[in-house]
Amino acid sequence: MDHLDEISVEELHDALDNVEGKKPTQRLLAAIAYKNGVTQTELAEWHNTGRRTIYSWLKRLDTDESLEQAVTDAHRSGRKRKLSEKDQQEFEETVHGSPEEVGVDAPA
Asked: How many structural domains are present in the chain?
């Protein structure tokens, strides 16, 4: 990939020291390995993902952003919860309880 020609392994290592989280670390480690001759197919196997994902990780580095920003996902708020905190807690307790405790499989 031509865009990684502009980035040195040392720059990738420096960025690795400045990121937090699993995904950004994983993406930078993949880029370092790629710069050291590991193929995208091998990286996909190592990370248990597809080649297209590895390509996307490497392509993200082709930007004017800092490397730390390029490998970090933007915050996504997600969908609002439909259960209240109390309902969520009751649900979790029910799911983690034994079937007999919550009235399932009880003799009729």
From this structure: 1
